[in-house]
Specification:
Elements: H1 4-12, H2 18-51, H3 56-59, E1 65-71, H4 80-89, E2 96-100, H5 108-122, E3 126-130, H6 149-155, H7 158-185, H8 202-218, H9 222-235, H10 240-252, H11 256-269, H12 274-286, H13 290-303, H14 308-320, H15 324-337, H16 342-355, H17 358-371, H18 376-392, E4 395-399, H19 407-412, E5 420-423, H20 426-435, H21 455-472
């Protein structure tokens, strides 16, 4: 007769191999990831809709032909609403709704990263881009593109993006714990104001928070970005660049008083923070305190005679005041310091046009066009965007900035331009600028020989876009 205790031992100690346990755990993880992916896809649209509430009226129009406009501050709250009105006035027989997808300060890596979710939210029939002007240096933590099909497939999942964001959160929290440990260990070495001295991981920790704040800012989550930047300041109040970051966040939201306060705090912490000085001068000029702006920029040039941005900003201010000879000198000094910077060439072109010297204006226009070339990062992101649109059979309209030559965009898509509608704004704006005042069409010189458009400039831009779309897409 069998011993009953044998059955008891079998029940308590099932013979499950390590491989079976591993497979069961793997199956459980895969099932969990699938559930999370489904949940993210269900919730993603609602979350994005909250961020893009300004497009609600356009999106809810059933049966309309949807156009999504992507770009930076030259797109956000600029021409999209005018384009919608002008297209609908043309009586093509189609109802148009135009969605403003512009985000101030955004770069092309972030536009491409967010494109999948943006397309899922709006389901556009056409996408228009005017982008790339902000692609100078690495502004956001961004992954290098991978050619591996398996990796591209994995990155297409929402779960991957969630894991990446959580990893950044965890890295940030780990750095915070390290900082707290350093603070406790160095409590005997507090500074004059009772703060830990800047040692070890302090700088890395603050920068981790700043990186994460930039992610939120690029997605339009300003309150989350502000909270992270404030946390970075709490952890290490002595990193002045964090104040500039927070000030820039307020600038995007047009909160001038907060912007100025944080710029001054950055300067208080570091008298040689020339980026903060230049921003402060820009703010003074915006508020018509031109004398204060001039004093600040002159101070920067005196202390940092190789700061090209200060020369260009002061030259632009003199140009707007009609102080042509002083502006000319500053622009030429900027070119001596940075011969490859297209902005100074473009500014001289605007200057000589205003002075009536069209020969010199044309010379500097050619130099500006030659110096203006998109970085390799921008070129790659244009290609990635087109591939994503082609996959969904979405019409792509690629637009160049005002007065810029379309050849730089043609060069990007050389041999791969099939199906793209290009919008060239060079001749249009050059013609009106020769006959009218620059201030009628642009509010600044942020791009060298072009800037953010006035209402009149945006109307001109939108009318030209409507003409091209009507003729080349709808053959009207």
């Amino acid at each position: 007769m069998a011993d009953p205790s044998q059955y008891k031992n079998n029940l308590l100690s099932p013979r499950t191999s390590g491989a079976q346990i591993f497979l069961l755990m793997g199956f459980g993880i895969v099932c969990s990831l699938i559930i999370i992916e489904i949940s993210l896809r269900l919730c993603g649209g609602a979350f994005a809709a909250l961020q893009a509430c300004r497009n609600y009226l356009s999106v809810k129009q059933s049966g309309s032909y949807r156009i999504l406009c992507l770009g930076e501050s030259t797109t956000a709250n600029q021409y999209p609403a005018l384009l919608e009105a002008m297209l609908n006035q043309r009586k093509i027989g189609i109802k148009f709704s135009v969605i403003d997808g512009g985000i101030s300060g955004i770069q092309t890596p972030d536009i491409v990263d967010n494109l999948e979710s943006t397309l899922n939210l709006y389901h556009p029939d056409m996408v228009i881009t005017m982008m790339g002007i902000n692609d100078f240096g690495s502004y956001m933590p961004h992954e290098d593109p991978s050619d591996a099909k398996a990796m591209r497939f994995w990155k297409s999942f929402r779960v991957y993006r969630l894991i990446r964001l959580l990893a950044l959160h965890m890295a940030t929290r780990w750095q915070a714990l390290k900082l707290d440990g350093v603070s406790r260990r160095t409590s005997s070495g507090l500074g004059a104001q009772g703060r830990p001295q800047c040692v070890g991981g302090n700088f890395d920790n603050a920068r981790a928070y700043v990186q994460l704040a930039r992610c939120y800012r690029q997605n339009g989550s300003f309150s989350e970005a502000e909270a992270l930047l404030r946390r970075a300041i709490e952890l290490n109040p002595d990193i002045n660049s964090t104040y500039v970051e927070l000030g820039e966040l307020y600038r995007v939201q047009k909160k001038d008083s907060e912007f100025e306060a944080f710029l001054r705090k950055a300067i208080e912490l570091d008298a040689n923070n020339y980026a903060a000085y230049v921003y402060l001068a820009w703010l003074c000029q915006e508020n018509r305190k031109t004398a204060d702006a001039e004093t600040i920029l002159r101070k920067v040039i005196a202390r940092a005679p190789k700061n090209v941005i200060a020369y260009i900003h002061l030259g632009e201010m003199y140009l707007s005041q009609g102080r042509f000879l002083e502006a000319e000198l500053l622009f030429k000094q900027a070119i001596e310091l940075a011969p490859a910077d297209y902005r100074a060439y473009g500014s001289l072109k605007v200057l000589y046009t205003a002075m009536g010297n069209l020969s010199l204006a044309n010379d500097y226009d050619m130099k500006a066009q030659k110096a203006f070339d998109y970085p390799l990062m921008t070129t790659g992101n244009y290609h990635k965007l087109k591939v994503m649109l082609d996959k969904r059979r979405i019409k792509y309209v690629c637009m160049q900035y005002p007065v810029r030559n379309i050849s730089s965009l043609n060069k990007i898509f050389e041999g791969h331009a099939g199906g793209i509608v290009f919008i060239d704004n060079e001749r249009l704006f050059k013609d009106v600028l020769q006959k009218g005042d620059y201030k009628d069409y642009f509010i600044d010189l942020f791009g060298g020989d072009f800037g953010h458009c006035t209402k009149k400039g945006n109307a001109l831009l939108a009318a030209h876009m409507a003409d091209v779309i009507s003729n080349e897409v709808f053959h009207q």
